[in-house]
Amino acid sequence: xxxxxxxxxxxxxxxxxxxxxxxxxxxxxxxxxxxxxxxxxxxxxxxxxxxxxxxxxxxxxxxxxxxxxxxxxxxxxxxxxxxx
Length: 84
Known about the structure:
Elements lengths: L7 H9 L21 H8 L4 H8 L3 H17 L7
Helix pairs in contact: 3-4
């Protein structure tokens, strides 16, 4: 699993099939199906819908859309992505 973007602790959780208990980790989400880890969530599911993301972080899909729109606006402003 080397080079897959997962941390050692994420791989350990997957191998042992145990949810992460490191609540203070910045990657921790309260979503047991993905072992409480956003890295595992992305690794196992790939691209997700706004609803799937909202379910994982505990907000509505409309709020996820608002966050996405603001992030894209900032990225365009700073020319991190193109206008097209």
